[in-house]
Amino acid sequence: MPDLAAVIVSVLHVAAKHGNWRFMQNFLSALISVLKITHFMEKSKMNLCRISRLLAVFIFVLGANAAVAMIDTPPLRITKYLVYTDYGNGDFVVYSDTVVPGCDAFWLSATDPGYKQAYAAVVTAKATSSNVSLYVYDTTFWPGSTSKICKIRGVTAM
């Protein structure tokens, strides 16, 4: 079994590789909290078995969160978009001129809470030939295609 330090370094390496700085910040904050709890438990004479279980749960939860990676794309220009009237109640697929590793295109679900705002930002960017940056899940793909069409979480107008 790998030691705790090796696991921590591996998780931070994966997050840095994907540019997921928010995850790294949350990870380090959670790690500091666990270390404080562990220190308290040691001062309170709690046994090592309980401490080990707590750390195992912490690592398991972080491992599950690490599976959902997000990418903040570089500025890109929208080349075309498609609105599917008969799939997902109006799913919206966006194509760009920039290659984003792991993503062939991007999509919005019509059922997403911020769908109208994100849709408007993308359509406006296309109409004005402006750049946008997309915050996307690179592990959640559109079910309407076998291509890697990554789910959009946010749109930044440039």
Assign the CATH topology of the largest domain. Answer: OB fold (Dihydrolipoamide Acetyltransferase, E2P)
By CATH reckoning, the class of the largest domain would read Mainly Beta
Structural class: alpha+beta
Task: Tell me which CATH architecture of the largest domain applies here.
Answer: Beta Barrel
Count the domains. 2
Low-confidence stretches: none
Q: What is the share of helical residues?
A: 40-55%
The rough form would be described as: elongated
Helices and strands, in N-to-C order? HHHEEEEHEE
**Main sheet properties:** 5 strands, mixed, barrel
The percent range for strand residues is 25-35%
Number of strands: 6
Strand order of the largest sheet: 2-3-4-6-5
Average pLDDT value?
Answer: 78
Distance between the termini: 46 Å
**SS field, number of helical segments:** 4
Rg over alpha carbons: 20 Å
